Amino acid sequence: MRMPSPLRPVPGLSFALVLATVFPALAHHGWSWTEDEFSEIEGTITQVYVGNPHATLDVDVEGEIWRVELAPPSQTMRAGFTEETAKPGDEVTAIGNRSLDENERRMKAVRIIVNGSTYDVYPSRVPSN
Amino acid sequence: MPTRALRASFYAYPLVNATHVLSIGALLTSVVLMDLRILGFLSAQNRQPFLKLMRRVALTAFCGAVATGVPMFAIRASEYFFNPAFRLKMLLIVLAGFNLVALRVFASEPDGTPSEKGGARFFAGLSLVLWLGVLVCGRFIGFL
Fold this sequence. Notes:
The structure holds 2 protein chains of 2 kinds. Chain A is of the alpha+beta class. Chain A has a single domain, classed as CATH 2.40.50.140. Chain A contains 2 helices and 6 strands. Chain A has helices at 11-22, 73-78; strands at residues 39-49, 56-61, 64-69, 91-98, 106-114, 117-120. In chain A, a hairpin with a 2-residue loop joins β5 (106-114) and β6. The interface between A and B is medium-sized, with 25 and 25 residues.
């Protein structure tokens, strides 16, 4: 007699779920991949992108290109920063949390200063002076 | 929707993204059920109509995933093109495509139903691994 077979747990799917939970700190989503302390970098903008899933600046800091992540486009533009605000060649100061990986030149910025103007893309996270 | 509008949108991008997730959920579910049936599980399901239904769901879901994936890729094509997780995902999709063709050519009945012999089970097992790999790689794109 043939028994009806219930849906058994799928080993592959469990494995995928485990994989997804054991690599928590690689994200540029959220802040889990960043240091808690704030740091500051200064350099020359090489690329400006204000769009989904979030805005970014590429910044030349003494010959090394840093990826500076900003907020999603709507929030970045609400802070007053659009693609017209800055262009390659402009000097920028970015304040935010850099990657926990010291070899990775990547920062999630809360405040950027370009051409004398300050843009707080994550106002609630800007450190108090 | 034009790439430029999607790129700066507040609602459209998350909605397209959600539809992509929905498509992938439906695709993975139907592929896993189809492969399990070929592997000999779920034997209470009448083999041929079940496989036919799952195949139809999978093909529709795949089209939905492509239709929502391409515009999101186009927003920042040069960025994603060099993303290792994206590249591996595309490679796995191509391999899954070859696997599907191989199942059809080497281990199917003339009517297109996968045979009940060992060959079809091999391709079904490979399909499970490949599509779960596609899922995990896709999730990693935003984290590299």
